[in-house]
Amino acid sequence: MFLLGLRDIHLVAHPAKRPFLCQTWLAGWFGTLQELLSRWEDYREAGDWPRLMSRHDGPLLPSAQRQALIQLWARHLWWSVADVQAAAEAEGLTLSAHAITQIGQNSGLLVARRVLRERFPLSAETLRPTDDWLVT
Question: Is the residue at 125 inside a domain?
């Protein structure tokens, strides 16, 4: 909120649409990303207070790309993060392993994957219940 307040400083002689302090300066001075400042301004403008006040930055990836990554991983639940990263790279989407893990956690896919792996041996060829897990 402090950074957004600094962005509201305008000079009298300049147009109102041009703040005195630019996003890149503030990002550099306060050790954050310019993209986050832009996002926070969008949240404030839209009145999206829950997102603005959240302590989580959220992904810097558009929703459509996040959804495509989740669908890719959901079709191949046995893949590791490195496998998903390589497949995403082949489709032109460069992401870090941490970003992929975060997307999996935020979507709930990693929880579902963990539960399935407890009960089924997952591979490209098989999806069978494990011996110690009975269906009742």
Answer: no
Residue 92 falls in which region: left (phi positive, over 0), alpha (psi -120 to 50) or beta: left
Give the list of residues 6+ apart from residue 108 with CB closer than 8 angstroms, or none: none
Q: What is the pLDDT along the chain (136 residues), one digit of tens a residue?
A: 777 777 777 677 766 677 777 888 888 888 888 888 888 888 888 887 776 777 665 556 778 888 999 999 998 888 999 999 999 999 988 888 888 998 898 889 999 999 888 888 777 777 666 565 555 5
* Total tally of structural domains belonging to the chain: 2
DSSP SS3 for 117 = helix
Tokens of 45: 């403008």
Q: Please indicate, yes or no, whether residues 49 and 90 belong to a single structural domain of this protein.
A: no
- The DSSP string of 69-97 is HHHHHHHTTT--HHHHHHHHHHTT----H
Asked if 74 and 93 sit in the same domain, the reply is yes
